[in-house]
Amino acid sequence: MKLYINFGFPRTGTTTLQVHLYPNHPQINYLGRYPKTNPKLELIDLISNLNNDDFDKRYIKILIKVKELYLDPNKINLISYEYIIWDAIHYDNSYRNPDPNDINFRTVSRAVSRINSLFSKIHVDVYFFCSIRNQSDIIFSAYKVTSPEINASLTFTGEEIIQYLKTKNTKKPKIKRFLNGFNYWKLYKNLSEVVGENKIKFFLYEEFKNNHGNFVFDLSNYLKIDPVISIKLLKNRYENLFEVDSVINNPLSLLCSKLTMYFNNKKYLFENFNKKLLNMFNLLYRYIVTYKAKDKKISKIKKENLIKQLNIIKNNSSLIKKYYRNDCLELKNELKLDIDKYGY
User: Fold this and answer.
1) N or C terminus of the chain with fewer C-beta within 10 Å?
2) CA–CA separation, 79 vs 298, rounded Å?
3) How many Å apart are CA 321 and CA 319, to the nearest integer?
C-alpha cells in the first residue's frame, strides 16, 4: 500500500490543488487538508509539532490514529499538509513547545522521519512531494500575506531580511531560520537521507503558474492518475492570488475576496453556511456601521507600509538570489531541474 504526502511549500499553488484536484479526482482517496479537514489535519499536526518527550508519550495513541486512516487499495491515497514545512521554518506554536526559545524545535526532516516510521508499522510506503518556487518570488509572496504590517505572523520586516542578507548578522534568529527554509537542495538531501531519494519529489511552481504547463502531466504521472481528468479539474483554477488590498484589514475588501472565492467554488459555499452568513453580516456591520474615517486612515498607512517593505524585497531580488546561488546550482546539477529559465 502507498500513501503520498504533499508537504509544502506555501505560496506554490498548494491550496488550488487541495480545493480543485485532490478531493475531486475520482482516482484519489483524499485524506486532507482543506477542504476536507479544514483547518488542520490533526494527525500530521501532532506528528510535526509535538516535542520528542510528548511524542514518545503519545506514540501509541498516534499510531492508533494512523491505523484508523482509511487507505483505499484501489485509489491513490493522498494527504496535503503544507504546514509540515511552514511550522518548521516560520510558526512558533510555542504553546506546544516547552522551550519557546528553541527555534530549532521542529524540522521537516524530523516530521518526515516520524511519518515514515509510523506508517511503516502498518506496512504503508510513504512518498513525499512538494512544489518549489524561485526564492526571491516565494519570499516576496510569503511576506505579502504574513507581514507585521498587516498584523500577521511574521515578526520581522522586509528591511530586516535584506539587512541580514547584507551583513549576515541579526538579533532575530528567526530571520535566518526563515531564509534557510528555502534552501531546496539542502532540504532534498536531508529528506533523502531519512527516507531515500526515490521517495522525495520536487516540482516547479513556475510550470504550474504558467497556465499549469507540463506541471499537471508531471504530477499526474507521478501520482499515477489520469492527466486528462486533472487538466479538466484545474483549468483556469487558481486560489489565494492575493493582491495588497485584499490582505489589508479592510472589511469590504475582505468580504469581496471571500465572496469571489466561494462563488468560484459553489460546492463549498454551503459548507458551514450559517457560520459564513454570520461572518458576512459581521463584516457588513463593521464596514457600514462602525467603520470610521480613522479606520480608513489606518488601512491606508498599513497599505503604504506594506508596499514599502515589499518594494525593498523586490528591489533586492539579486541579493536574495545570490544568497541561494550555491544551493540552486546543486539543485540544478543533481536533480536536473530546469530552473535557469525561471530565474532561480
Assistant:
1) N
2) 40
3) 5
| Segment 104-148, tens digit of pLDDT | 578 999 999 999 999 999 999 999 999 999 999 999 999 999 999
- Give the whole-angstrom CA distance, residue 305 versus residue 148: 10
In a domain, 88, yes or no: yes
41 domain residue, yes or no: yes
Kind plus residue range of the DSSP H or E element containing 123: none
In sign, the C-alpha dihedral spanning 208, 213, 216, 221 is: negative
In eight-state DSSP terms, residue 272 is T
State which residues form the domain around 329: 2-134+181-241+325-342
- Report residue 32 CA to chain centroid gap: 14
Whether residue 94 is contained in a domain is answered as yes
Nearby residues of 15 by Cβ (< 8 Å), 6 or more positions away: 34, 239, 240
Edge-to-edge strand list for the sheet holding 125-132? 28-30, 76-80, 2-6, 125-132, 200-204
Q: What is the dihedral of CA 50, 52, 57, 61, to 10 degrees?
A: 50
Rounded distance between C-alpha atoms, residue 1 and residue 81, angstroms: 20
| CATH number (domain holding residue 49) | 3.40.50
Place of cell 479537514: 37
The predicted pLDDT at position 241 comes to 63
Backbone dihedral region for residue 62 (phi beyond 0: left; psi -120 to 50: alpha; all else: beta): alpha
**Full-model pTM:** 0.85
Number of H helices and E strands in the chain, helices first, is 20, 5
- Domain assignment of residue 195, yes or no: yes
Number of separate domains in the chain? 1
* pLDDT tens digits, one per residue of 4-22: 999 989 999 999 999 999 9
CA–CA separation, 306 and 267 (whole Å): 34
Task: Kindly give the pairing relationship between strand 125-132 and strand 200-204.
Answer: parallel
Q: Which helix (H) or strand (E) holds 76?
A: strand 76-80
